[in-house]
Write a structure and sequence with these properties.
- By secondary structure, the chain is α+β, with helices and mostly antiparallel strands.
- It has helices at about 15-20, 45-55, 75, 110-115, 135-175, 195-200, 220-245, 265-290, and strands at about 30-35, 60-65, 90, 105-110, 120, 125, 180, 185-190, 205, 210-215, 250, 260-265.
- The protein is built from 8 helices and 12 strands.
- The strands form 4 sheets. The protein has a 4-stranded mixed beta sheet with strand order 1-2-3-4. Strands 7-8-10-9 form a 4-stranded antiparallel beta sheet, covered by helices on one side.
- The structure holds pyridoxal-5'-phosphate.
- Pyridoxal-5'-phosphate binds next to loops.
Amino acid sequence: MDVVKIPTTPNGEMDYVEFENIIDKNRPAIINANIGTTMKGAVDDVDKIVEVLKKHKVKYHLHADGALMGFVLPFLYNDLSFSRYIHSISISGHKFLGVPFPCGIFMVEKKFKEYIVQKVEYISSLDATIMGSRNGHAPLFIHSCISKKGMDGFREDIYQCLYRAQWFTNLMKSKGIDAWINHYSITVIFPRPSDELIKKWALATENEISHVIVMPHVTKKLLYEFLDEYMVDKESNKIENEEDTNIEYIDNNELSATSNEIITKKNYYNNMFHNISTIGLGIISFIYFKFIKH
Ligand SMILES: Cc1ncc(COP(=O)(O)O)c(C=O)c1O
């Protein structure tokens, strides 16, 4: 099966113009719409996707990858349902649902399930799993998490998370940080800090951005604590960068007549150290092989 990646707009959402240009209009397609992208929490607009597909009379199966937000968005608006255009959806159990081990929910329209259902004589039942087996604990834990918190409990959690995520974005912005958030999202995006801070807070980071996902356990206190450290980190990086830009440059012509590259003093001393160590190692090896080995 050919896989085609559709480019995204800067907020992480599918670029519908590119989608229309790229999609092969002469054959059916399986579309994977992102209901909350991993890094930016962007939600693809299913209406716009379907509009393009219908315009070009393309037969399709529309899957919604709702790993995190598949359990959040239905509480905010009622649009994520099979009665519209989605044929299947997947939701992680260990994300917003809070199951303490990796598991998930895959839901599909009944007519598709029938393709994989098989009667298994020795269990006197139907097997509707893709792999012919599944972890029996997962549905029990998922059921327990949902019934313990209940619809009202989840609704409350979700509103609180949305509120805190927006609050934290505004707080970061008020400190001069280039933070932003997608509409109806709990993922706050900001410029990546130092590697030490990324490691300490286990921040998901991709290229120049990192994020914080404001889940129910992420309190204002924790966010303040993180922001304090982020600010200190930002300031010390700024000072380091300023120091770097203040480094006196040495024209390489002074060092080598054949090259006119410019290198910094720091690099110069590093190179010198490297050369001295290499020469030193060479002399030691020479002494070893010449005088000691035999
Ligand atoms: C959009 C999206 N899809 C899929 C996954 C993977 O989900 P799981 O951990 O349930 O395999 C993630 C995880 O971050 C995700 O963000």
